[in-house]
Amino acid sequence: MITIHRAKVEDVYEIKKLLFNTWTATYSNIYSPEAIELITSRWHSVVLLTKQIKNPSLFFSVAKDGNKIVGMCNATLTQGGKVINIQRLHIIPEYQRRGIGSKLIEEVIKTFPKALKIELEVEKQNERALTFYQKQGFQRIGKKTFEIASVHMTCVVMEKLV
Ligand SMILES: CC(C)(COP(=O)(O)OP(=O)(O)OC[C@H]1O[C@@H](n2cnc3c(N)ncnc32)[C@H](O)[C@@H]1OP(=O)(O)O)[C@@H](O)C(=O)NCCC(=O)NCCS
To answer: What is the mean pLDDT of the chain?
Structure first.
């Protein structure tokens, strides 16, 4: 059975591994292995992830199958508590299409009951995630570009009223 929990500091290495594996599976057709290595080493360092797990204003959740972490999500409130921002949502490849991503989003909405909407950004070539969010009721509202470690990223900004 899949259960949802707040991440604990001792989960950090399993989360880091999950992020590297899902990033590789998702983005290897979009970015070079060197770019994935560089981005994940910066964004998913043990120091940064530990700080985020300890941050009480960040909802850092994990989906577990027994003791195994099979998915994770980060969300926080912005704009004076009116808007939920989802920063990460990753399910390990062999557990995708089992309703876990939908379940993690439901839990985020329950955690921030006063929010009026959810916002997030998706890499513009990540078609599967764009389809998933559209099925969840998100709409495209714009685009954003980033430069990280000399890698140019274009993201679609999406939102959903809750
Ligand atoms: C995108 C992601 C979070 C979706 O989570 P998930 O647990 O696989 O999705 P769910 O099982 O809850 O899917 C709900 C519905 O979304 C749609 N959907 C989900 N994944 C899809 C895919 N790969 N292709 C087409 N539709 C998809 C389907 O309609 C699905 O319902 P169905 O399986 O009954 O048809 C997950 O696939 C993932 O982690 N991908 C890699 C990382 C990533 O891209 N994260 C998002 C970055 S912003």
So the answer is: 96
